[in-house]
């Protein structure tokens, strides 16, 4: 290990990429919500308005996990506490 | 490339530094615009007629549509909180649309969204105590006393998730547009960003504002019923 700081930064970048991988599962969840909503809208067109508003709320709820991943990635890249600790530790 | 919230001035108040950031300055601009609009409506209110026309029609339609939306989502007996959320809706929508002008949207700063979700949180607790009194406090200990810490974490997570949702959406739009502006040559920066602005600022901003208000209503309804 030549440079511990470079190692920490490299690991932080890999961790950010891994945090963004939860977009896969978030997208699957949102796709399921959308397909179910379209199915029920086709079955009951008169209830389309209430189904649409419920669908948007559900989509927003499912999107939260994706947003958390994004925020964790941003913290890893721009405001990583480990890097500051490392810098102060190394002097 | 500039993703951070810039600091414009530092003023000293009683030996304490107060940072006037870009967010605060942009919020002041929005506040000024909204206050002037409100004063104009208040002055024009004297000359309002029974049959609305023109400007009066617009103002009345906005309030009426939001009132009906509140009544449908939160119920008739709780719809007296609609004015506060009308203000939240108008303010958040204006701040999301603010980045269309190339300035940083105040909602792309966690402080702004967290302030508003903290307002929702306080209203939620207040409405729960007002409408259900002891039953609201008892609901923390259900179904068992052992689950009290988990219920408490669930309540505290509500304003945090509510604020992160709006903040993350607006921040992702800001990041993508900053990347686009800083990585592309000058001749593609005319015209094409309009589409990106339409998607990330106007569409996502309006949708997330709507969702912020509707989820606040759902939390309040859940606490008060």
UniProtKB/TrEMBL annotation, chain A:
Pfam families: ATP-synt_C (PF00137). Signal peptide: none annotated. The chain crosses the membrane at residues 55-79. GO terms for cellular component: plasma membrane; proton-transporting ATP synthase complex; proton-transporting two-sector ATPase complex, proton-transporting domain. GO terms for molecular function: lipid binding; proton-transporting ATP synthase activity, rotational mechanism. Its main location: membrane. It is found in: Cell membrane; Membrane. This is ATP synthase subunit c. It comes from Blautia liquoris.
TrEMBL record, chain B:
GO terms for biological process: proton motive force-driven plasma membrane ATP synthesis. It is found in: Cell membrane; Membrane. Keywords: ATP synthesis, Cell membrane, CF(0), Hydrogen ion transport, Ion transport, Membrane, Transmembrane, Transmembrane helix, Transport. It comes from the Bacteria. Gene3D superfamilies: ATP synthase, F0 complex, subunit A. Pfam families: ATP-synt_A. Its main location: membrane. PROSITE patterns: ATPASE_A (PS00449). NCBIfam families: ATP_synt_6_or_A. Belongs to the ATPase A chain family. It comes from Blautia liquoris. It is a multi-pass membrane protein. Key component of the proton channel; it plays a direct role in the translocation of protons across the membrane. GO terms for cellular component: plasma membrane; proton-transporting ATP synthase complex. InterPro entries: ATP_syn_F0_a_bact/chloroplast, ATP_synth_F0_asu, ATP_synth_F0_asu_AS, F0_ATP_A_sf. The chain crosses the membrane at residues 24-43, 81-104, 110-129, 166-183, 195-220. One of its GO terms (molecular function) is proton-transporting ATP synthase activity, rotational mechanism. This is ATP synthase subunit a.
């Amino acid at each position: 290990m030549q440079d511990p700081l470079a190692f920490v930064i490299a690991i932080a970048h890999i961790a950010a990429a891994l945090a963004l991988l939860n977009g896969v599962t978030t997208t699957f969840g949102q796709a399921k919500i959308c397909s179910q909503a379209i199915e029920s809208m086709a079955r009951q067109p008169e209830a389309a308005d209430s189904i649409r508003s419920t669908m948007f709320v559900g989509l927003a709820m499912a999107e939260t996990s994706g947003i958390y991943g994004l925020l964790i990635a941003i913290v890893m890249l721009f405001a990583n506490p480990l890097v500051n600790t490392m810098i102060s530790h190394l002097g | 490339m500039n993703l951070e919230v810039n600091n414009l001035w530092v003023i000293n108040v009683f030996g304490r530094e107060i940072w006037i950031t870009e967010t605060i300055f942009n919020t002041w601009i929005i506040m000024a615009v909204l206050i002037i609009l409100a004063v104009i409506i208040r002055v024009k209110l004297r000359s309002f007629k029974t049959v609305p026309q023109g400007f009066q029609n617009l103002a009345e339609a906005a309030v009426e549509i939001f009132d009906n939306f509140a009544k449908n989502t939160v119920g008739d007996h709780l719809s007296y909180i609609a004015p506060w959320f009308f203000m939240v809706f108008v303010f958040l929508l204006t701040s999301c649309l603010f980045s269309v002008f190339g300035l940083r949207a105040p909602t792309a700063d966690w402080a702004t969204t967290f302030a508003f979700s903290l307002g929702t949180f306080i209203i939620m607790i207040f409405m729960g105590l007002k409408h259900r009194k002891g039953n609201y406090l008892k609901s923390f200990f259900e179904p068992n006393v052992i689950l009290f810490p988990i219920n408490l974490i669930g309540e505290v997570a509500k304003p945090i998730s509510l604020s992160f949702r709006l903040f993350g959406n607006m921040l992702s739009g800001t990041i993508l547009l900053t990347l686009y502006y800083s990585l592309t040559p000058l001749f593609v920066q005319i015209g094409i960003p309009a589409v990106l602005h339409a998607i990330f600022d106007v569409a996502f901003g309006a949708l997330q504002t709507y969702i912020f208000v509707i989820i606040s209503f759902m939390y309040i309804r859940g606490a008060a019923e």
